[in-house]
Design brief:
By secondary structure, this protein is mainly beta. Helix content is about 0%, strand content about 40%. The strands form 13 sheets. Strands 33, 34, 37, 38, 39 and 47 form a six-stranded antiparallel sheet that branches. A five-stranded mixed sheet has the order 2-5-10-7-8, with no helix packed on it. A four-stranded antiparallel sheet has the order 3-11-6-9, with no helix packed on it. It starts with 6 loop residues before the first strand and ends in a 21-residue tail after the last strand.
């Protein structure tokens, strides 16, 4: 859950004056700025071939202060008031006939140095307006002396870059920069790979109705799938022959309460499922060893942990760290973000109590982070972050969280939603992320995160231009699956008008895509897993706070069962339960739901070689498929209506023309946004 840009801003003194300076030589490409457009401080032209051009300036952000948990009543960062903030204007020129196959991203950033004596409390905000005064990008994260935001639909015009204070004891000098990054996508075809297929199982009408940012896990001992939807925990079982599912509410006594953030994690080999409900300074938490029949209360957190966006995970203890009298075979971790750091606690007794360990991120990355994952072979701990001084990265601990180091993905651009990380059985690390360019990318490390192979765009072959909610899971070292919501429509998908013409959707249909590799990330086979059933239509907000576009909240989840079958848990915003959103393009038919659903692999290879031959098509022979349906029965909720959010029958999916992708994209030298975390309005 992201706390909103929850803060009161109070003007401490008058606005300070600002000095603007064009800075040349900031990139390996030419800096355009010798001839300014009329009325603009700078001018820059989009390159016609892959490369980066940049323009920079210096300024001073006015003095100001604010208080967390309320908005901006003092209007200290009022974008409509030209006297507020430090402002720079940039004229962007786009050459006629620019190759439409090129990816073009404009990345705006500000960078400052914490002033000694102020305790490093400076915290700034970045906003970008187009020449109509409309916000096209903003960044308001915490924990680093840096803000950046990308704009993926680069149009000619004059843009205003505003740097304004959230917390400035004194006026703050800063350096601003615009990078325009142009790259050409690269794709290749995997050979002799049968495309996996999937079936969608949507919770019955009365169950899991509020499932924004869900999580799920599979108990490998019993085969049950555990699904968290807000305050409710469900046990889900599947009938693969009938292609149906049954959902049973097994919510515990401790965690069925009002929450700011629901999280579920299953220690799969040991069959223990943890549920955590954020309650600011700590969390209400409990675990079950019998799929929700009985629950054991947990301490919930370690001392000094943060107040937002918690994550629970675990795996083997690192060598020489396991307690001599261990009562549980694996370490369990609880991590949250605070105002200036991402902090963690480690449990050595199976989740009953937690020890406090070192902060994972301080100023290396923004405090916003994805789900913690632990390598199954040696216990290395990974926490991904979306904004690390313009890139995306991961905090890594080799000693159970006692110390950390940060690794940056060099060809990434900081994004707008949490990245995801997973390690295979041999320690190969997969980092899946929604890049600031809008593309769904994966970087692979064969040395436990010390270095990264070139990132791969897994959506190019299907025309994906916008992505959110990246989730990745590895099995064997050479196998992994990457799921994300994707749209083939250009534009600012956080704009309420995204994909809308009048009262109809002319685009902006979001689908669930799943990409799979069987060769350690060299190639990826990508399918649209919901080709006839959009997960969402129109805008998707991911900048914190409340918005009509934020019904799905901030992330999904992915896991595998014991045989390596891939499953994706998500909130379906476009169902047939309350209106014909799945089939109708009328804006009035989109009720912006968040109904719990699971995509479950039906055929093709899973993520464990040992079980090749178990699913149809997993021996590289074409699989025969049929229709699939969701629904099923659940306690307190009646039966599923026709199954799946499309109503009637959901076909098994996997597009014959779906071509896998190979690595080798150009390095993207740029920077991007993050924002403050979420609030009760949209957890």
């Amino acid at each position: 859950m992201r706390l909103p840009s929850l803060r009161t801003r109070r003007i401490v003194s008058g606005l300070a004056g600002c000095t603007m300076l064009a800075v040349a030589g900031l990139s390996n490409g030419p800096v355009v700025g010798a001839a300014f457009a009329a009325g603009a401080d700078h001018q820059i032209t989009v390159p016609t071939s892959p490369g980066t051009v940049s323009v920079g300036w210096e300024g001073t952000i006015p003095q100001g202060a604010s208080v967390i948990l309320v908005g901006d009543p003092a209007h200290i960062c009022d974008t409509a008031d030209p006297t507020k903030g430090d402002r720079e204007t940039i004229q962007i020129n786009v050459p006629a006939g620019l190759d439409p196959t090129l990816d073009v991203t404009a990345v705006y950033s500000i960078d400052w140095t914490a002033t000694s004596g102020n305790g490093g409390v400076e915290d700034e905000k970045l906003v970008v307006l187009d020449d109509h005064g409309k916000v096209v990008g903003e960044s308001d994260t915490g924990g680093q002396t840096y803000e950046s935001t990308p704009v993926t639909l680069v149009k000619p015009g004059t843009y205003t870059v505003i740097a304004c204070p959230f917390q400035n004891p004194t006026p703050m000098p800063y350096v601003g920069r615009l990078d325009i990054v142009v790259s050409r996508p690269v794709a290749s075809v995997a050979k002799k790979v049968v495309t996996p297929t999937y079936v969608q199982h949507t919770a019955p009408t009365a169950l899991a109705k509020e499932s924004g940012e869900p999580s799920l896990g599979v108990n490998w001992k019993t085969g049950s799938t555990m699904f968290q939807a807000n305050q409710n925990t469900y046990k889900v079982t599947f009938d693969d022959k009938a292609k149906t599912s049954a959902w049973t509410d097994v919510t515990g006594n401790t965690t069925g309460v009002i929450t700011l953030d629901p999280i579920l994690w299953t220690d799969q080999p040991n069959g223990r499922t943890f549920v955590s409900q954020l309650l600011l300074a700590c969390s209400a938490a409990e675990y079950t060893d019998d799929d929700g029949t009985t629950w054991v209360p947990s301490q919930g957190c370690g001392e000094g942990t943060g107040i937002d966006h918690q994550s629970v995970g675990g795996g083997p203890f690192p060598a020489n760290l396991a307690p001599a009298s261990a009562v549980y075979p694996n370490a369990v971790y609880y991590c949250t973000n605070g105002a200036a750091a991402t902090t963690c606690g480690r449990s050595d007794d199976g989740g009953l109590t937690f020890l406090t360990v070192a902060p994972a991120f301080t100023e290396e990355c923004g405090v916003l982070h994805g789900h913690i994952r632990v390598a199954p072979d040696d216990g290395t701990v990974y926490i991904p972050a979306t904004s690390c001084h313009g890139k995306q990265g991961v905090a890594i601990s080799n000693d159970g969280g006692n110390s950390w180091h940060v690794s940056y993905v060099p060809d990434s651009i900081a994004g707008t939603s949490d990245p995801s990380v997973s390690a295979g059985s041999d320690g190969t690390v997969y980092f899946g992320y929604s890049d600031g360019s809008g593309k769904p990318k994966v970087a692979v490390s064969t040395d436990r995160g010390d270095s990264w192979l070139p990132s791969v765009d897994t959506g190019e072959v299907l025309g994906v231009k916008a992505t959110e909610f990246a989730e990745i899971v590895a099995g064997d070292g050479d196998r992994a699956a990457f799921a994300y919501l994707g749209s083939t429509t250009d534009g600012d998908f956080q704009d309420p008008g995204y994909g809308v013409t009048g009262d109809r959707y002319s685009g902006g249909a979001w689908h669930m895509y799943v990409a799979t590799t069987y060769d350690r990330g060299a190639t990826w086979t990508t399918v649209d897993a919901t080709p006839k059933d959009p997960v969402q239509r129109g805008c998707m907000w991911n900048r914190g706070g409340g918005s009509d576009c934020r019904n799905l909240l901030d992330f999904n989840d992915i896991t595998v069962d014991k045989i390596g079958r891939v499953m994706v848990g998500f909130a379906d915003g476009c169902t047939s339960y309350t209106a014909p959103c799945s089939t109708s393009k009328d804006v009035s038919d989109n009720k912006r739901e968040a109904h719990g659903a699971i995509i479950r692999q039906l055929s093709g290879k899973g993520l464990f070689k040992e079980f090749d031959g178990t699913l149809p098509g997993s021996n590289d022979l074409p699989a025969t498929g049929g229709g699939g349906s969701g629904g099923g029965s659940g306690s307190g909720g009646g039966s599923g209506s026709g199954g799946g959010s499309g109503g009637g029958t959901i076909p098994t999916t996997g597009l014959p023309a779906a071509l896998p992708i190979a690595g080798g994209l150009l390095v993207l030298l740029a920077l991007v946004p993050a924002r403050r975390r979420r609030g009760a309005a949209g957890s």
